[in-house]
Amino acid sequence: MRALLILSAVVGLLLVSASASASPGSYKGRTDQNRAVTFEVAKGQVRSFQAGVMTFCLAGTDSSLETDAVANVPPIRLDRAGRFSWTAPERTDGVIEMTVSGRVRAGKATGRVVLRRPHSSFEGGTTMFGQCSAERRWTAKAR
C-alpha cells in the first residue's frame, strides 16, 4: 500500500511539472525591438515559430542599412523543463547562422533569435549588402 502511495505521488508530481513547464496553446509576444512573435505549443513541440527581427547590414565602407527578417522554423522539441533550441543547417538559404531558443513555462515564454548572413549583392550593381546580423530577445504569453 505504501509503495502504491509513493508511486501515485511521483506520477502526480511528474504530471504537474510537465503541465507547468509548457502549457499547450497559442503564444503571442514581442521582441526587444517591439516586433511580433507567435508560435504554438502542441504535442511537446514549439510549432510555427515566427519572429520579426530588424537586422543591421553593412553597405559599402562608410554606410549601413537595416532590413527586416523573419525567423520561420520547423517544429522544435521541448525538453521536460520546457526549453527548446534549433539551429539552421550551415547553408540554409544563404544564412550562415540562424538560431531560435527559449523556454516555455506556466503560460509564459522567453528566448532569443540570432540571425547572421554573409555578404550578398544583386546583379546589375544596383543593390549591395554587406554582412547582416541580429541577436534579439523575445517574450510571449499564452493567449
The gist of it:
The protein is mainly β and 143 residues long.
Helix-strand blueprint:
Blueprint: H1 2-21, E1 25-31, E2 36-42, E3 45-59, E4 63-72, E5 76-77, E6 83-87, E7 97-105, E8 108-117, E9 120-121, E10 128-129, E11 132-142
Antiparallel strand pairs: 1-2, 1-11, 2-3, 3-4, 3-5, 3-11, 6-7, 7-8, 8-11, 9-10
What does this structure look like?
The protein is mainly beta and 143 residues long. The chain has a single domain, classed as Lipocalin, CATH 2.40.128. It has one helix and eleven strands. It has one helix at residues 2-21; strands at 25-31, 36-42, 45-59, 63-72, 76-77, 83-87, 97-105, 108-117, 120-121, 128-129, 132-142. The strands form two sheets. Strands 1, 2, 3, 4, 5, 6, 7, 8 and 11 form a nine-stranded antiparallel β-sheet that branches. The longest helix has 20 residues, at 2-21. The radius of gyration is 20 Å and the shape is elongated. Residues 1-20 have low confidence and may be disordered.
Distance between the ends:
42 Å
Architecture, CATH level 2? Beta Barrel
Low-confidence stretches: 1-20
Radius of gyration: 20 Å
CATH class: Mainly Beta
Percent strand? over 45%
Q: How are helices and strands ordered from N to C?
A: HEEEEEEEEEEE
Shape: elongated
Q: Classify the fold: give the CATH topology.
A: Lipocalin
Strand count:
11
Q: How many domains? A: 1
Classify the secondary structure makeup into a structural class: mainly beta
* Mean of pLDDT: 77
Index terms:
56% strand, 143 residues, 14% helix
